[in-house]
Structures are given as structure tokens and as C-alpha cells.
Amino acid sequence: RLCELLDNAGRGWRKLAELAGAEKRFKCSAEELEMCSLKVLEPRGSPTQCLLQLLAERDCTLRYLLGCLERMGHEQACRVLSSAVQDMIRITVQPESQVVAEGTHVSLTCCATGPPGLVYQWFCGRQEVPGATSPELVIDTAALAGQPEWYICRVNCGATFTFSRWAHVQVEKSSSPSSASGYCLTMAGLQILRQPRPCCLAEGDTLALECRAIGNPPPQYQWFRNQCPVEGAQAPQLQVKLVTTAERGRYSCRVFNLFHEVWSQEVDVEIGEGPRQTSVTPHLHCSQAGVSHSITTPPSPVPAATDKVALLIGNMHYLHHKQLQAPTVDVHALGALLRQLDFKVVSLLDLRKAEMQMAVDEFLLLLDKGVYAGLLYYAGHGYENFGNSFMVPIDAPSAYTSEHCLCVQRVLREMQQRRTGLNIFLLDMCRKRNLNDDIIPQVGALEVTANIVFGYATCADAEAYELSQGELSNGIFVTFLKRWLLEDEKITVLLDKVAEDMGTLEITRGRQALELRSNLSERRALTDPIHPPGQDESSARNLQWAKAHVLPESRHLRFDCGVTVQLGFAAEFSNIMIIYTRVVAAPKDIAKCEARLMDIPEELDVDLKCTNKESPEEVGSPLASVWSLGCPSCCLYSRICGLQKLQQELAFTVCLQYRYQGVDDFVEERQRVNVGRPLIAKLNLQ
């Protein structure tokens, strides 16, 4: 009905678009307005319907739309829409329970939206408060000394009414124990009574934090996680049900009113790491020093192996340093081989420091009982100072120091503390001295756990090299590691063979040699079998990590003109996804059509010059020949990088451009598509 009224009227859809655009997020571009106007060329096309669809995609409310129609003075359209907008009363600001000091005044506030002429009435218990007919109720606490009171507000318009929630007002004497110990009177007008407390939870638990304050005007609250506001967390209590590792971090609460602001203490919330029992086996071994060495002791049992996991990181496109070529091919080749050995592999390219740290933290959470082997591989720039090695993220400044990088020894210490049968750390990076860094990190000594193997692609104060082979480059280390990785050998024996092979390469002899360190006492091999986990053994954390390689399902989009488009996905790495579009059905009277991606989130790394390409080789991927094997022909390809940066679900527009036979001009139709959080985006590394 709105389309009939607005499509051809002088005060029509264009005027509506102009008025709606007064709010920036509803403003339509010239291209979008032209797309709406072209709808008149379609058999059942409507410019108004196209405009309303654009407004709906931007979360425009019916009430806002009604306001625009009222400003247009279009009475008929207003009557049509008014029937769809129910004149319901909605409480927008609820009164908050408060603990206040004796002798002060406290105010409770209730605000509501609805039809004109809203009437407020406050109640104390079941009794009306005389004269309390405004949104704010001011209470003299002298009349409440020591007695808690409950207040509620009724909002009505004629016979329609609703109630606010109850607010509890508790008056504390200044000499009471809770006042003396619960808060410090350091900020006149606003004091925190109850501070949030740190907690350690398992996945699936409920997170509950509380921050209580007193003040006049009443305090308002905003919770923060890792110094970023938590959406919708504006109450004294923060509660999150069924938590995952995405909720862990440092939490604080900003408490404020019209005149003052104060912050709660910052507390740590740990998710997924329960207290670990310390193994007593090494201590028993040491206490038996008097036992003759000729006695044969039984071998230690192999752990209940339910998983093998690997995190592979390759940094190439540095913002302030030399670009590298080999990590793309090395990470891909290593990942393919590890999957043959039943490893769960997550492979990531081009990470900033915070993203590297979060990825390593997620990896460390997995290295617990039941995980047989954990392997962490890093390829990129690095350096070594005073015996400590550092991995350099892509956002490191030109004169970087240890504070801009990840310390290898710190990560190794964390790996050693896990109850994993085998921990492997492989560093494919240079180990030259960094003259900009004279800080000696206090890392502490590594523990004796007899379960760790780590190796460098080169020796101390030496460089690691790449081999150019046509358009592709391999690092020297992975070039030789690939030859031996699938062999059924103890991991230290396998790496010794790699070192021997590297020594035969003439061009790097005397420049690069693998350095191996190990305290592994048992025979542990990458080929050792694992047992599939039972239902009780498979934690929510492992399932979440496994989802990091789940692609969105292929889908078919049907457009009004009768064209059907297939939308498909392929993974190049855990944070790089290929999206392809293909026309699978079209009416006979359409001569030509193609579907392109548009409006990809800005935070992702997308080269617009390499999107919607007719061949896989044109999207800028050196591995196109590998991932394109599973893609159909006659597609348009786009390469989406940096999925770890995704702040919300991945949404984009599919724009169908088509031309009818005998007509030169193209027509466009668009559909908005949401594919959720694909691949590594599910782990919320931001």
C-alpha cells in the first residue's frame, strides 16, 4: 500500500529518502537512489519497495519511518503505517536499586516512550507517593533511617499502562561496618560500595560480576572488557551465560553521573583454565636416586591421546620492514602434511601483535591432558638478544624492541607447564642481534618436564634464507623438513635428519644450520596414533577450536528477475577465505548476467582490484592452483584476508547485473548476505 502511495507521487519516495537521510546511517548514496529509480523498468518493480528494503537493512524502525512520513505531510501514508505501529508504552530508563549514606538525598529515575500524554505515578510499596508524578523521584533518606524501602513507577496513557521494575533503597549509617570497609570516601558525590572480583570459570559456566555505587544524581554504569565497552552492559551486574574463551579478559566498570566519574578496579576473568594438578612423577624419580641404575624400569605409559593440534603462523606483509615471500608456501605445505598425520591445524598469515598473542593463548589452552602433541610453527622476521628469542609481528615499528614482539622463551615456559605428551616449537626466522633493544627480559628458567622439543631454522646470530623457485618461494628449513615429516621416527631423530640434509646445500653451507634443543626422554613421533575422543573427553574448548576451520555452507540466492546465483567458499588459510559467485540459472530473455561482491567490511584486508575476478590466478593468491581445484568453473572469485580482524558477523552484498535481449542497458538487483563468523573469526581474536 505504501508503494502505491509513494511510487509516483510528488511527495513520494525521493522525498522520503531525503528526510530519512537526515540520520547519517539511513542516507542513501546517489548510486542507491539510481538503483531504486531503475525499478520502474521491471515488470513488478517498485522504487519505494527498494528504498524500504535499504532502510530495513540499516535497522530503520517503523516509528522513525512514521516520523519521516509525518514531516512529509503525507496523511494517507501516515494512516497506513500507524496501523502497523502499536502505541505501546515502553520503559527506556529503569530505576536502579541503591545503597546510600544517611542524611543525603537520593533520586530514582524512570523514563518511557509511547503515545503523547504519558502520566507517571511513583509508589512506595503498595502506597502512592503523594505528588510523585514526574519521571524523577527525590527521596530524603532521613525519613528512611535504617529501613529498606521498595519503589516502583507506573506509566500510563488512558487505560494503557505499564510498571517499571522495583528499586530497593537501603540507607547506611556512616559508622556502619559496611560503610567503613566497603568503600572509601575519596570522591564527593560518587563512591563505589562493591568492587568486582576476579574469577576463573570453565566454558559453559555463567559469568557474574557486580559493581555497586552510591551517588546523587544516581550512578550509571558501563562495563568494559580489555578497555573496550561491552555492548548492552549498563547495569550494576554483568551476567553472561554459557561463556566461552571469547569472554575472558580484564574487566572494569565505569561509574558516572552528571557531575562525577569513577572507575572500579580492573579484574581478570579466566575462561577454560581450571587448576591443574602438579604431576608428582618427577619428584618420585628424584627420591629414588639410591636405586641401582642396572635395574630396568618399565617405560612410562603413553598418555591417553585424544588429539594432536598445530598452530602455524606466517608473517610476510610487514608494515615497516622487508616483505617476505616464503611463509605463504611454507605454512601451506606444512599444514597439508600435518593434516595427513591427523593434526588439527590452524594456519594464519600476517598477524599483528595482539592477534599473535591471542592465537598463542588459544593454542596454549589446548595443551592439556588428552592432547598427545602440540606443535607451534612460526615463519617471519625475528631476532635474538641475550639468549632470548623474539617473533616480530607485522605491525612492529621500524625500531622495534621486545615490547613490540612475542618472547619465545615465555611461550616455551607456558608450553612446558601443560600435560601434553609432546610439545614442539619450530622457529623459521633469523636470530641476528637487535641493536635497538638492550632490555633483558626476566623470563625465568625452563622446567624439567621431559616433553619438549624446539628448534631453530638457523643458529644464533645467523640468518634464515628463502629459496626462489619460479613464482613461489620456500624457506630452506621447510624445503628439507617436507622430505622427512611423514616418516615414523622419533621427532628428535627426524629433525637430526633434516639438519643433515640442510648441511648438503652448497649455497647456505656455513650460513644456515638447524639448531635443535630437546629434553624429550620418551620415544615420541608425529606419526603416533591417537584415539578419537569420547563425548566426555571432548571439551567445549576443543570443539570451538575445531570450528576454526569450518567454512560457511554453499547457498543459492534467487533474485526477482528469475536468476539463481550460487555462493560458494574455499579456505586458503584459517584467516583467508575465497568467495566465488556463479550464475546457475537464468530466464531465456536475459542475455547476460553476473554476480559481484560489494560492501565487504572495511576492517578486512581486501584488495578491491583483485575481487570479482574471472580466474583464480587474478585474485593475488600464490596458491590459486591448489584451492581452485574444488571450485566450479565460470565463476567470479574474491579473496578475503584478515578474518581474525572481523569484529562482527561477516555480511556483504551480492550485486546481480543483467541485461535483457535487445536492450543495451544493464539492470541491478542486490541481496544482503550474512555468513556468520567464518574460520578463525569464530575464536574472536580481537
UniProtKB/TrEMBL annotation:
Pfam families, per the entry: Ig_2, Ig_3, MALT1_Ig, Peptidase_C14
Annotated ranges, domain Caspase family p20: 306-434
Signal peptide: none
GO biological process: proteolysis
InterPro entries per UniProt: Caspase-like_dom_sf (IPR029030), Caspase-related_regulators (IPR052039), DEATH-like_dom_sf (IPR011029), Ig-like_dom (IPR007110), Ig-like_dom_sf (IPR036179), Ig-like_fold (IPR013783), Ig_sub (IPR003599), Ig_sub2 (IPR003598)
Stored CDD domains: Death_MALT1, Ig
Any one Gene Ontology molecular-function term assigned to this protein's record: cysteine-type endopeptidase activity
Entry superkingdom: Eukaryota
UniProt cross-references to SMART domains, sorted A to Z: IG, IGc2
Domain spans labelled Ig-like: 89-164, 177-270
Protein name stated in the entry: MALT1 protein
Taxonomic lineage of the native organism: Eukaryota, Metazoa, Chordata, Craniata, Vertebrata
